[in-house]
Amino acid sequence: MESTRGLKAIIGNFFRKKGQMGAQASSATFLVTVGFVIAVACAAASWVIWWFPYHLFSDEVYNVVVVNAPDSFIQFNEETQEYRDQEARAYGDRYNYFANWGHMTYFEYSYDGYGWTEFIYKESDALYDFVTFGEWMRDNDAYLTVVFPADFDEQIKARQEGLTEDKPEVLTYYRTNSLEYSDMKNEFIDEYLAYYQGSIRADYGIAVTTVSDSHIVHDPIPTADENDDFNIGANLNRTFVPILLFIVLLYASMSTGTNVIAGQKERGTFTGILLTPMPRQHIALGYLIGVVLKAIIPAAVIALIASLLSFRFNILSFLAILVYLLVLEIFIASITILISVINDTVVSAQTAFLPVFLILVSVCVTCIQSVSERADFYMYIPVHGQFYGIGDALNGSVDFAGLIVSSILTLTLTAVIMIITVKLLYHERYTVSIDTVTEKEIKESQSGGKPSFLTRLNKATDNFSFVITEIFYPLVVLSFYQFLAMIPVVVSYMRKAEYSSFIRDLANVGSVNDIINKTFEIISIFFKDPLYLTLMTVGYIAIILTYIFHAGRVWKIKGFRKKAAAVGYPLSGAKHIAKHYFLGLIIGFAMLSATVGIMYLTGQISFAGFNLNTASLGVFALNLLMWVPQGASEEIMFRGYMIPAFSRRYKKAIGVAVSAILFSAFHSLNSGYTPLASFNLVLIAVLFALIYLLTDDIWMTSAIHTAWNLTQGNIYGLQVSGNNAANSVIKTFYYKNSAPIITGGDFGPEGGLAVTAVTVVCLVIVALLLWRKHKKSKT
Amino acid sequence: MRKIATVFKWEINKLFSSWKRTVTLFLLPAILLMLALNIFPLLINYMSTGSINKRPVTVVAAPASFRRYVEENVDARVFDYDFITYKEFNEMTDDKDSFRKQIRKGTLVCYFASGDAFKDFDEVVTAYYEEVSSGNRAAVSEATIYVGFDENSITSEARAEQFIEGVLDNYQDSLIDTLGGDYSVVGSSLFETDSFNPVTDFEDYRTVANTAAARVVPGVLLIMMYYCVYSLVSDMFASERDRGFMAKLLMTPVKPKHIYAGKILAINVIVTASTYVTMLLLFFSSWINRSNDAMSLLPFGMMLTPAELLIVLFSIPITVLLMTAVCISTVFQLERMQDITVNLQLPLVFFLGDFFLQMVRGTRPVTMEYFIPLHNTLALIAETFMAQNKAWHVIVIYLFNLGLALLVLRNAFRKEELK
Amino acid sequence: MIRVMDVHKSYTKEKETIKGVSFEVKKGEIFGLLGPNGAGKTTLMQMIATLMKPTSGIIVIDGLTADKDLLEIHKRIGFLTNEIKLDPMSTPNRLFDFFAELYDIPKEQLYQRRKESFERFGIGPFADKRINELSTGMKQKISIAISLIHNPPIIIFDEPTNGLDILTSKQVTDYLMDLKEQGHAIILSTHIFSVAEALCDEIAILVDGRIAAQGSVKELVDQTGAENFEKAFFKIYVDNHVE
Question: How does pLDDT run across A492-520, given as a tens digit for each residue?
Fold first, then answer.
């Protein structure tokens, strides 16, 4: 056994070298350690004096704002005033807790009496105006606003007289600057408002104020044996001590284990060891034993102290703990050696070990969570077995079956890891950095050889992620900006009194259909609102800018022109742009006029004169303004950006097809949808795409898009893809017997055959032009 | 100043020169955390019950009204039900050990008792209302619903509580309308409170979610930040010094301070951005979480007011600066790479400990804690999520951390110059 | 150009690494520092390059001292060790741009400078390759090119030909001779005799932190009475080394 000498030499190395193991501590790390210890101590202190901090933060408020208070409620408050005063006196000085020592020990943060509450009465018709309510609460030191409907008493009366089934609804709002107000609100509803209800009942002579038709009983079922007492010490032994031991082992193994092989590789001394005639398994084994011996010493000392402190020290259980620790440490050490072999430098080895560290600690924590609830088989598996085993052994009971089985399983696992390690040691290739592997692959693919599975997989996932990104990008961008534009508008509507009942009706919205209809109802209200129109205009411009910046890889202002050109907006030549844009406007107007003409001639619609009045002129102008960036942003999304993006990767036809289908899908979500509408939208999208290919920019299609929507919504007053535009020049109405197949019904003209006809004609013309251009460029 | 920008740009470009590095830095930690957050509750559930699926609630002798209630109410269908009769239940409890095992695995038992051998639960309730409406105010109902859960398991108790609050209480309230007969008109409530109030619903969700988030989010963010800072400092300072590249930089006619400043700025910008991404993901994770069971770490509706959000957002770069200062001072003080990594990793263990401490403590910080650097950020973020933040805490913590960071950095650089 | 006056350096209290070294390097001169490992060559070089402060003694570079005009000195010296590893993910071009900005080299000059040095070392075809795809020799050549990007009058080379093949070594030594002719002052540390013999005008032999002998190759051989330079070196070493 000559080679055992080598083994001994390697192990001996661990203890001979000075300063190899004893890592130096930096002062910063030392201070961080001190800080952490103090923090833990503070947390422990906060458990002992849990109530103390609350006295430092006693700035909570107790008043209540009552909006539209019915007479009965005001009267009820006056009746309770005396009782509340008495309660406040009984509690003592609200602001001086120290003078009020007696209450300290059972102090509750949310004082649940109403002794300190003053009621502030306000009037408002806007029942959902939480902004104003917030101001009132701040001004009056109130935590809660209770909003009654204006005719609360009358509604109660009507119901009692059997005139109606509806119950009046009370709304509450509370302040956001402390989460405690949520509980206080619930208590107010459950107690004070319940008493108030009782008093109304009494007024109407209803004797029974509370009924109790059934009871709910908590029924804890004991599942553990009675004699298994879980006192604090035993619990600590089962939780804290094992986790401490785990961390000590892990940390000690990490600092030595990752150093040995990776460190020697870094210093270049490892080659020397590999060149010796020692079998590789002996090298690996030598390092393993060295790490184990190094790490087990501190852990064993801690285990000894812990078991002495537990007052249940017996030599058998201590030996069991040592066995558990040894097995666990062998397991951990084998992982560190494996990681050390895989990595080239200490840093990379230690970084690679971190996840293992975190995972094992997390496993420990999950064990803590359920020490008392563990299933029996956990005693027999690696890691869990050791964790529970150590805990039990500290409490004086040793499960020998568990000890043996878990140890055997763990050691088997260790053996597997060690075999892998030795294999890796034989193939030093694997220990070279990962970069060389990819380099090889790059060369392989460059030389045109058969692509490996990995490259094929890469390509497939690449295509997949490309398509997903391209499809979802517009969706995300659009919904993000629309959402942003929506928030201020929604808030402003909640503050308006006239929409209170509208909001209340939303409670009855149930089916999906209802939701879609209501949504469009709301949007058509928004379309008359200057705030919304302005915000949406800004939002559409933001979308365009987002796309332009997105065209470059990094977000930079530099090269704006180039990027704008990349998404279809070449900024060269004002004359050229103006020509295309005006031509586009005219084409758009003409196309829609043709559609309306068809509908008029086939007797579907009629005009009822002019609709615009001076009052709505401002909104009308804003509306017009909004269509410009709206059209432009949709064009940039579906044409200017998407078609080149897809064409570059696949074929032009795929770009056109995908953009057309997406365009159609986006617009088909609107109300009044028909299959014909989808088809028409695809046709329109293809038409626009062809125009884009014809003109090489999207100035013209943007103009057509804008003109189309504008003419449709604000000149002829028809629906734009299901959206109702509000202010139109001409008032148009459908005949009662009009055929939706031609007019498109609720969806607007895009859902009807009239548009199909116009689009097909245009498509033929553009296709011819494109063909001619193609031929010209060839000759 | 231009030189700082040059170094800054160089470091940023270096990081983005390889997409692998970028992804590792920006997304991987965030994604791992998200996974952990979602798997962790599953794991706890698994550890405590031995199965990943949630156990159905065993309902014994369910009255028709309860079955109908479950069918009609979406909220009630959060739980799965296993309807059995008295007889089946008796058979189940005959074998004590196996029954115990089932309970230990997380089964809840909902037992309807009528208190009358010849009537079922519904009939007893109906009879009670008949008596009440005929004027007998002394009528007593013996109808009882027992909810059985595992006495030794906190999770089981929490789930039982959730079942009672989320389902049984509402079911009980509905009884007066469904079984009350004549009495339902007179006896039911006179008005409703917040039956439709989006604002308060939102606030209620926020209360629940933010309380849970205050336990989880600060620790997660701190671990995230420290991990990034640690890996960047060992790359930009330790490894570069080891490679000799730092010497080359120091040989240029640029003040060492400016070179360090550029690097520190780069670290700060990257880590701050990466942490913001993580925070955004945490918010998303809360908003798409509709399951909302007792174990969920980030329930639906996490929300901060703009002021609170600003407090959290500003505290991040300051903390990152302090962490960077700590790491740099370690790097400058020690010589050997292995010492440096061990020293840099040790705080990560502490942050992990702090994270778990915050998970379980449930008390407000004592004043002392606002003066423990790094830990005070955890306290600040936690109390901001709880809406308990005070202006002076914010000011003290910002200034304290910032001042300390600058002090540590100045010291480290001065020592380095003296070498 | 460079004057080193009674320089001492000690890392720990007990042991002094450099025990009083003085010498002078003139314009257009290559000064060689020769010595066994651990003699203090690298420490001395680093002190001259201002990367380290001497415990006592003065180093004057072009009339400037590190205490007062650190950045001015940096503009005048180029420092190169064979230990420098460049960032593996970067490219020669990017490195060049980066250091050009740090050294404040005007854009017009940069183009010329890049062309020259890329041509001399044949970096051109690899200018946009990643560093980790290049050979050791190429890395070293890039490293030299970057160190001398600002055309410094004083050049400090710590074992410049270490680990290079003969061809590359030749390129480097030729370059050094060119630089000398252009009037640069060069300090060179090496333990390869042939390099020292071929290049250096003046050689100092460092043993245990002291200069054991100084002079041109011829002078040193004459002093010791040895047959050749190699033997002269051994003689000096044996005479001065204390166990």
Answer: 888 888 788 787 777 777 667 777 777 77
CB A689 within 8 A of CB A767: no
Give residues with Cβ within 8 angstroms of C1, minimum separation 6. Answer: C25, C26, C27, C61, C62, C153, C154, C185
Distance CA A414, CA A285 (A): 11
* DSSP-assigned states of every residue in A256-272: HHHIIIIIHHHHT-HHH
Q: Does C69 touch chain B (CB under 8 A)?
A: no
Question: How crowded is residue A571: how many other Cβ atoms within 10 Å of its Cβ?
Answer: 12
Domain membership flag for residue C239: no
Once rounded to an integer, what is the mean pLDDT over residues A360-387? 73
Residue C95 makes CB contacts below 8 A (sequence gap 6+) with C86, C87, C131, C142, C146
Strand partners, C32: C188, C203
Question: In the 8-state DSSP scheme, what is residue B295?
Answer: T
Calculate the alpha carbon distances from B34 to A539, B220, B296 in Å.
Answer: 31, 10, 12
CA nearest neighbour of A119 among A65, A164, A169, A71: A65
Instruction: Tell me whether residues A173 and B239 touch, CB distance under 8 A.
Output: no
- Contacts of residue A126, defined as CB under 8 A and 6 or more positions apart, other chains included, come to A132, A494, A495, A496, A497, A499, A500
Cα gap A268→B98, rounded to integer Å? 62
**Measured between CB atoms, does C71 come within 8 Å of chain B?**
yes
Q: Which chains touch C (3 or more CB pairs under 8 A)?
A: A, B
In a domain, C241, yes or no: no
Q: How far is CA A639 from CA A475, A683, A750, B181, in A?
A: 14, 14, 19, 65
Query: Is residue B374 a contact partner of residue B319, using CB atoms and an 8 Å limit?
Result: yes
Give residue-wise pLDDT tens across range C153-172: 888 888 777 767 777 788 88
Kindly provide the ipTM of the predicted complex, given to two decimals.
0.80
User: pTM for this one?
Assistant: 0.73
Helices H / strands E in chain A, number of each: 31, 9
In the numeric block, which tokens belong to residue A199?
A: 């008093």
The number of folded domains in chain C is 1
Whether C83 maps to a domain, the answer reads yes
Q: Could you tell me if C187 and C45 are in contact, meaning their C-beta atoms sit under 8 angstroms apart?
A: yes
**Where residue C143 sits, what CATH number does that domain have?**
3.40.50.300
Cα-Cα-Cα-Cα torsion A655, A660, A663, A669, nearest 10 degrees, comes to -130
Question: Could you give the C-alpha distances from B83 to B48, B55, B66, B306, in angstroms and in order?
Answer: 24, 13, 11, 48
Nearest CA in chain A to C131: A435
Widest distance between CA atoms in chain A: 111
Q: Give me the torsion for CA of B390, A98, A104, B158, rounded to 10°.
A: 0
Is the separation of the CB atoms in B125 and B172 below 8 Å? no
- CB contacts, 8 Å: B243 with chain C: 83-86
Tell me the C-alpha distance between A267 and A34, whole Å.
33
Which residues of chain B does A32 touch, with a Cβ-Cβ cutoff of 8 Å?
326, 346-347, 350, 374
Distance separating alpha carbons of residues B284 and B273, to the nearest angstrom: 17
Q: Do A373 and B375 count as a contact with CB atoms less than 8 A apart? A: no
Query: Can you give the residue range of the structural domain that contains C82?
Result: 2-217
Within a domain: residue C225?
no
Q: Does B73 touch chain A (CB under 8 A)?
A: no
- At A462, the pLDDT band (50, 70, 90 cuts) reads low
CB A27 within 8 A of CB B333: yes
Residue A771 CA: distances (Å) to CA of A644, A765, A775, A779, B238: 20, 10, 6, 13, 64
Give the angle subtended at the CA of A372 by the CAs of A366 and A376, to the nearest 5°: 85
Please indicate whether, in this complex, the C-beta atoms of B346 and A29 are within 8 angstroms of each other: yes
Selected for mutation to probe chain A from C83, C85, C90, C132 (highest A CB count within 10 Å) is C132
